[in-house]
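Lay summary. Proteins are chains of building blocks that fold into shapes, and those shapes determine what they do. In this project we predict the shape from the chain. Here is one chain we studied, written as its sequence of building blocks.
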Amino acid sequence: MTRFSKLISLSMLAFACLLAATPAQAETREMKMTIDEVTLPVAPDLNYKVFAFNGQVPGPLIHAKEGDDLIIHVTNNTSLSHTIHWHGFHQTGSWRMDGVPGITQEPIKPGETFTYKMIADRPGTLWYHCHVNVNEHVGVRGMWGPVIIDPANPTALEKTVTKDVLMMMSTWESANADKYGTGSTPYDTEDYFSVNGRSFPYTQPIRLKTGDVVRVRFFGAGGAIHSMHIHGHDWTVTHKDGLPLAAPYKSETIMFGPGERYDAIYTANHKEGRFIFHDHVDKHVTARGKFPGGPITVQEYEGTPMDSWYVWKDKDYDPDFFFQESMKKGYGLFEQPRLRGVKPVKEKRGSRHN
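And here is the predicted shape, written in a compact code that computers can read:
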């Protein structure tokens, strides 16, 4: 090999190393969202009228990289006005995209479309929600969904994660289930509690393999304080509101309030077993005052014998209930069909009989 050839080879190697060390380039990601009126099966005895993003509660996962340009077209198919607030985004240079009616924009009226354009300028566990009549629309009408922005420089522990579990906590008021425009005032009573819009037994198990490194992302989507407790494991609390903690800490119970997000990472270190995972605010594990209900799930290890008396032995399993599968699909907007509600049936003209 000549000296010139060696120089060329070394230059190409240096360039390749430089590319490998450079963070992934920002991309433009364009998405479409709708806001729909549907009825959501929260519990066996509770069907709830909600305003649902793309017809589902929680709304679809938005997954992007830090620095990406996001263009999101939102069409309002409901009978009331709405906006979307992108909770956690700094909106650097895009303050009109913050989604607050009367301050940054006019509300999106029924039948209208509004386009949000912004940069994913803040990494971590973020979320989106309506900012019109927030007490009702966010508090008891399911108008929220997850946003995960992968950081340009993840921590060493983040890099070990093999499974993501997203938990959006909320409450419901059975007295206002079928009446839009009511609910979630100091005079109303919450009597159902949920994770990802469902109350036990409509929730789902978390299926694990020994050695899985699990990252649980908690969202205070509703108006209540929650205290999530994991059996059989300790986790390391690593992030608060999407940002890495200067001093991560070990625990097995984590308390969080409205709007807050926490990330906790743990290793599935049992050979087999089933371990419950639930809200430790005791009344939250009821439904209309009856136990069990609310935010209850079970960690099910692969290979564990299926006892005949196990409450979920015949469970119709949804592997994406906690967005585990959606988080593996890359970047963009990901719908979850099994989280959809039921759209009202429109009566055909001339179908009435006197």
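What the prediction tells us: Helices lie at 3-21, 134-137.
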